[in-house]
Amino acid sequence: MPLKTINPTQTKAWKKLSSHFNDIKNCHLKQWFDEDKNRADRFTIKWEDFYFDYSKNRINSETVKLLKELTEEIDLKDAISKYFSGDTINQTENRAVLHTALRLPQNSELIIDGKNIVSEINIVKAKMESFTNDIINGNRKGYTGKSFTDIVNIGIGGSDLGPSMIVEALQFYKNHLNTHFVSNIDGDHVNEVIKNLNPETTLFIIVSKSFATQETLTNATTIRQWLLQNLPKAAVSKHFVAVSSNIEKVKAFGIDESNIFPMWNWVGGRFSLWSAVGLSISLSVGYSNFESLLEGAHKMDEHFKNNPFDKNIAMIMACLSIWYNNFFEFETEAVVPYSQYLNRFPAYLQQAIMESNGKNVDRNGESIDYQTGTIVWGEPGTNAQHAFFQLMHQGTKTVPTDFIGFAKSLYGNTEHQDKLMSNFFAQTEALMNGKTKKQSKPYKAFEGNRPTNTILIKKLTPESLGKLVALYEHKLFVQGIIWNIFSYDQFGVELGKELAGNILQELNNSKKEDHDSSTVRLINYYKSLD
Prior knowledge:
By secondary structure, this protein is an alpha/beta fold.
């Protein structure tokens, strides 16, 4: 069954929220905290090793009540049921959205088109586990009989951002293998990655569902040429594996069919790290840690699916984002993890959220006259404090921000951890309270009242990371449902690709295209520099 198509701005709850917004838009968080000593307790959700405090948001109990009414009026419960059961909610591409199935327990059952897809998933997982163990243990070797020391993942978008983010986040758990990522079609990028690698001890993973992505295939071809400068053609089958649906193209590249890990059309690229796309993760940290990542995500799936609104972290986060985007007109939101391990997490979320919800047509195919899709950005703390926090504290723009921290450091250095976390706690307090002109000169004053969420997690583990990533997946899902858009297609990325293909032929002097005068001059100037 398709998703329901309800314009949120036409609901009773939206109209109530608009009126409520006018009543409280100028209220200050300090006043609310002064008036309600139990505020922090009422606006906190404790779940397993997660402590989610959303009390420093410009909301009161009435706001939460009305946001809940909005989710009920657009029938979020029905959408969640369809999301998890495999209904075709990606209607524009006639697909289900089932990345959540990838982390179901082994003995689960989910019937799609008469088949239990969990059985298919388990077969791929078993293949990943066996392959991972053989590479790590040195049972599977390169063409010259040497064990592998380096892994290179070749992909772009979801075939790169998810795996590279997780591998960096779980560096503490890595084994002896060194993992590298090639994504950009920039030739300098690929050459920088391979220049210090030994072709005899390097394994390459090509990740492309179609095996036709220009960036990925160009990089893979360049790397294959590099390999063949040192090893015979037969080495390709020993040093390359693929994650793809296009078996014939993979085989034509020189990869054995036994070294192909399948992909399914019900898994979108930006949600695919849980699948065989995560092979680089499994190789980097071991299959058992990859399994723990999946288990953590599944626990968050259950939390999201089964908890009521006021106990549901993803629902609250999504509705707060809509509250700021659509009522306060704060168009951006920052994500600041207080862990250097999560350096790539904001970049990962940029694709997950902005590619999903950057839409201007609703599920009825009609143009939208309200804001969708927030702009997401961020960097790790405390580095961020010495960069863009000036704007967040004293700028003319208000940026709702998620602060993500871990109570325990992995190496156990309490001196560093206490200093890190003192900043973590201080920044949300400072953003909320500010500093009045009475306390300082005008240019040293801070108005405060800047909203934040605090996600405090006990420790960065594969399981807790799985929970965190799944949390944001569910957040963007809820946003898309409320905005009445399709979150799981990405037609907006196609036009530029088409034009680039035409211009490439023109750069090779094999075709002449019509362009605007600016593009013509740019192309001609570029060619004149050869």
